[in-house]
Amino acid sequence: MPGKKQIGDFVFPTIPEGAATTIIPVPFPVTSASPTSATSSSSKAVQELQIVAVCCLAIFIWALPAICIKRKLCCRCFTRWISRRLTCYCLFGTVVNLAIISFVIAYEPDVSANDLFFGTVSLIESVSEKLMKSLYRLAILTGAFMAFLFRKRIHALLGFDQQLVRADLRDVMTCFAMDRFQAIEVSIWKMEELTPSWTPSLSSRSLFLRIVLGYNEPQHSRPHDGCTTSALFRERIQLNYDPEDDTQRLAIYIKQQEVIGGAVSSLAPAAGALLGGAVSALTPLGATGGLGVGVVTGIGAANSKGHEVARVELSCSMINRIREFSMKKGHTAQTTANRHAFAWNEEEFYPVDLVPQGRCWLRISDVDNA
Fold it and tell me: Most buried among 195, 213, 249, 328, by the most CB within 10 A?
């Protein structure tokens, strides 16, 4: 057919040169995939399984000496011989594995060395990503567990000598009723045999007391000047106390007054936040993380202001024992303004050893509301 062009079942006329043309869309039927493509996919899957099997065989060849030596599957002579020639066997196994893998790649038409390399890289990337996520979650759980396990030491490191949340399960179960509490008076006479000042040039120092008991607000005594290894306080502080709560601790801290004022202590968290944010902006921690770390560090520095000279922590049973000691002496504290005076001498007070060294003379008595 002159002037006509046939493509498959379609016959097209020949367009002369220079003639104007118009593009007319012509629909063509879309045929389904031939059975050959499905067969090709199945064949490629089989070939990939063969490659995986060959890789497993290569790993087995490399690990064969360890299996023979540890499991004692071979005779002693072969085990001794192979254990002395592990380097030679490793080189021999590498050559054999490369030869086997190369032969299989060359034999399989749909698998190439390039596909095997990038498939291995993709597998390692997937495993590494999942392992990183698992380790990240494990690190979070481990950090939370360690923070709970060492919560008391973390509080001490940050300078908090009392619990942050004042309420506990006992308060919730009693609907925060105050009937179980009674008022006690802690009288502190003097401190003896304290640790001397760490500054040799300063023979005397100013000491003050910090008293913490349960949910009570921390109480402080006035600073006493001219103290060396002993101090005469004569302080009386009244606190609320539950005699049946064996989780309470009466903590008495003897601290040395520092030169730094309260204004610096109040500015320490803000200064720590600014410094932490500025330093961590260029690190993987980021400015936000550095800001939080700086705030915590500043709070810890502010709360730990005041060098601790000594301390003592009394359990509930010890507090009750000292209360009984005061009752035997016939002493009760009064809440009226004209409280009766008592003698500040050794017969009226109970000696308690301090940590790291020293002795505290104190008295704990019930408050008489009459």
Answer: 213
